[in-house]
Write a structure and sequence with these properties.
Layout lengths: L10 H27 L24 H30 L7 H24 L4 H26 L5 E3 L3 H27 L15 H28 L3 H26 L4 H24 L1 E3 L8 H4 L8
Antiparallel strand pairs: 1-2
Length: 314
Amino acid sequence: MKPPVRFPVSAALLRRLAYASIIANVAIVVTGGAVRLTASGLGCPTWPRCTDESYHTTPEMGVHGVIEFGNRLLTFAVGVIALAVLLAVLAQRPRPRGLLPLAIAVFLGIPAQAVIGGITVLTDLNPWVVGLHFLASMAVIAAAYALWRRTVEPDAPTTPTVPAPLRTLALITTAACAAVLVVGTWVTGSGPHAGDKGAARNGLDPQAISQVHADGVFLLIGLSVALVFAFRAVGATRATRAAMVLVAVELGQGLIGFVQYFTHLPEVLVAAHMLGSCLVLLATLAVLWSTRERRPTAPATSPSRAAEPVAVAA
């Protein structure tokens, strides 16, 4: 009986697919922002269909219908990439430990995020559900990043690259980043870009909640700067570089945030701020990953070769 035919996937192809998954998930956050910023959130007024009679947009729905339906189509493209990654992982031989659960998480995260997006439409763009939709995308991006990092690392146990207190500081910084993202959705829910002219707001005072968000950003930047100096003090070069990149991204994101606030939230800057949120998350995760590494395992020496006598010239 012939063995089953296998279709092995190269590690390089898997890495490219995993990287493409990160890019695609960031792209759908930005295009989702475009839906909200163009007031196209109810361009397709129902879900999963675009109208009660059609799964796609109609000419009568105008440009808003096209924008909203286009974002829904992009969800399928992101799902196809996630499926390709999952199939590539299943075909991987040998398969690194922990890779399959991450691939499944990313793949299942796409329809879960789409369902939350559908609930936002069915609830007429409830600002709390809209915020959850964004945070779900952030969770999928985080899983996609972890998946990609796993594809570029050797299949070996993790080894710390910095002392335990600094790993704890990196975890605290990551938690601060998550808190800033959450409060950022509250700011969005209190502001003018609701996704539709008739959509409700969350009732929070925009100025007060923006101040809370700004305070969180200052804390995050302070923690990140502390990481730079702490990593440098212990000679962790790779971690220092990652922390410096994080600080640079945070400063750029903070600048965009302040400019958009004092210029009354122009759509272009709000879209750039959403992209910046994704970049801050990815840079934060890069710092977290820099505090440990997987070192290649040295091949074991064959006992027979180790026992071979060494010839000595007479």
